[in-house]
């Protein structure tokens, strides 16, 4: 147990140093083993020291996600939100990852049947390869958007909000693209 705690502390320290040096995601940050994700599928956890980042856990692996500009990860609502609502202070979440892991259940819309299949991601990858934009609207669904990291695309959901391509943010109503 003591060794595990040391590993987690080292990981958090390294993450903190990396996020101070570079606010953009590194390819090695996209998917990696992360102890707080052990045994969890579809659970989203806050990044320990960056309000705009969060992790999606899948069988012990953590996939780094970024909120659109001007939004912070809201650990209680499981979505990117206005900073005043998300209550992330000084890039340190008030809620610790270990506390969130105890109370957080997978988002109701996430289960084995509706996890994004590889061929669905191919559409995202193709769209990302055709542009230099970081965020794209998801074709046919205002609640979703595509986050591009190079030529790799990830589908994100605005939950109760709608993606606004002009603002590159989740917004109160759908603006057709």
Structural features, described:
- GO terms for molecular function: chitin binding.
- This protein is of the alpha+beta class and 177 residues long.
- It has helices spanning 2-21, 83-86, 97-103, 118-129, and strands at residues 31-33, 41-46, 53-58, 61-66, 72-74, 79-81, 88-89, 92-93, 135-137, 144-149, 152-157, 162-164, 169-171.
- Strands 1-4-3-2 form a four-stranded antiparallel β-sheet. A three-stranded antiparallel β-sheet has the order 9-10-11, covered by helices on one side. A two-stranded antiparallel ribbon has the order 5-6.
- The longest helix has 20 residues, at 2-21.
- The protein is globular and about 40 Å long.
- The protein starts with a helix and ends in a 6-residue tail after the last strand.
Question: How are the SSEs ordered, and which strands pair?
Answer:
Blueprint: H1 2-21, E1 31-33, E2 41-46, E3 53-58, E4 61-66, E5 72-74, E6 79-81, H2 83-86, E7 88-89, E8 92-93, H3 97-103, H4 118-129, E9 135-137, E10 144-149, E11 152-157, E12 162-164, E13 169-171
GO cellular component, one term: extracellular region
Protein name: Chitin-binding type-2 domain-containing protein
Keywords: Chitin-binding, Disulfide bond, Glycoprotein, Repeat, Signal
Structural class: alpha+beta
CATH T-level topology of the largest domain: Antimicrobial Protein, Tachycitin, Chain A
CATH architecture of the largest domain: Beta Complex
Coarse morphology: globular
Total beta strand runs:
13
| Strands ordered across the widest β-sheet | 1-4-3-2
Radius of gyration from CA coordinates: 16 Å
Number of structural domains: 2
Strand content: 25-35%
What average pLDDT do the residues reach? 69
Distance between the termini: 51 Å
The CATH superfamily of the largest domain is known as Chitin binding domain
CATH first level of the largest domain: which class? Answer: Mainly Beta
Enumerate the spans where pLDDT stays under 50 for 5 or more consecutive residues: 7-14, 16-28, 91-119
Order of H and E elements: HEEEEEEHEEHHEEEEE
């Amino acid at each position: 147990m003591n060794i595990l705690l040391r590993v987690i502390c080292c990981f958090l320290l390294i993450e903190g140093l990396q996020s101070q040096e570079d606010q953009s995601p590194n390819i090695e940050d996209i998917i990696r083993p992360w102890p707080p994700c052990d045994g969890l599928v579809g659970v989203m956890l806050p990044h320990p020291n960056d309000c705009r980042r969060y992790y999606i856990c899948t069988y012990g692996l953590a996939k780094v996600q970024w909120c659109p500009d001007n939004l912070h990860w809201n650990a209680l609502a499981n979505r990117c939100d206005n900073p005043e609502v998300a209550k992330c202070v000084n890039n340190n979440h008030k809620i610790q990852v270990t506390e969130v892991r105890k109370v957080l259940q997978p988002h109701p819309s996430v289960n084995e049947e509706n996890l994004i299949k590889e061929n669905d991601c191919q559409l995202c990858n193709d769209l990302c390869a055709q542009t230099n934009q970081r965020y794209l609207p998801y074709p046919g669904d205002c609640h979703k958007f595509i986050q591009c990291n190079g030529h790799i695309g990830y589908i994100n959901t605005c939950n109760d909000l709608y993606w606004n391509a002009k603002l590159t943010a989740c917004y109160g109503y759908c603006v057709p693209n």
